[in-house]
Amino acid sequence: MERHFEKELDELKTTINKMASIVDEQVENSFKDMEHAEVRLFKDIKHRDREVDAYDNLIMAQCESLLALYQPVASDLRYILTAIKIDSQLERCGDIAVNIVQRIKKTDNFRDIITQTDLPEMAKIAREMVKDAITSFINSDVEIAKTIWKKDDIVDDYNKKIFKQLVEMIQANPTLAEVCSHLIVLARQIERLADHATNISEDVIFLVDAEIIAHKKKLSNYQLPGEENAHS
User: Fold this and answer.
1) CB of 201 closer than 8 Å to CB of 146
2) Alpha-helix runs per DSSP H in the chain
3) Which domains does the chain have, with CATH numbers?
4) Is 231 strand, coil or helix?
5) Cα–Cα distance, 13 to 19 (Å, whole number)
6) Close Cβ partners of 181 (under 8 Å, ≥ 6 residues apart)
7) pLDDT digits (tens, 9 = 90+) for 149-202
8) I need a labelling partner for 100 at 20 to 30 A (CA). Which of 93, 149, 180, 209 fits?
9) Share of the chain above pLDDT 70, in %
């Protein structure tokens, strides 16, 4: 029984690593589209997204099988729970890569506007975050995971700054309203990509250190209704 469990767990690890590699490639190509105007990458990114969705279904089936048949505990249980969460984060990253190239395609004739904003800098940091998040998960590297949190704040600041830049462009030239609106959405997509990378890094901390840090700042002084009575 133990040998079968280890074999199926190894298969799960292989599957999620393959999915992560594809998503990493999708994100890389989506930003190549933005930087080099290679809109021909759109079809490839869209095609790979179907592959990611197939891996998503496979990973969920593998996790369900492991939980139902073997009732794992301790680190094995944490890995399966983490795999379920990271699978969802990776699937969303793949969707966002598709969304990014869709917005780029709609602004293809206004590429110069992108370079007039901080979008390239924001994209570079978000790209690093996704790559580092995947690396930290594959290698169970907590130190890499922790570096991602600081970068998330930088991306958030860029998002606010870019919004302001694009609104000012619209005010100065109302004919740019449509293209700037697409770029505002693009910046939001990049910000969400960084959020998913941050979520993966938090999942890595849970996997390695068995510590739940998601929403830690928000919940530092919060108690659920009735919780104060339960501890009295």
Assistant:
1) yes
2) 2-36, 41-70, 74-106, 111-115, 119-138, 142-172, 177-209, 227-230
3) 2-220 (1.20.58.220)
4) coil
5) 10
6) 170
7) 889 999 999 999 999 999 999 999 999 999 999 999 999 999 999 999 999 999
8) 149
9) 90
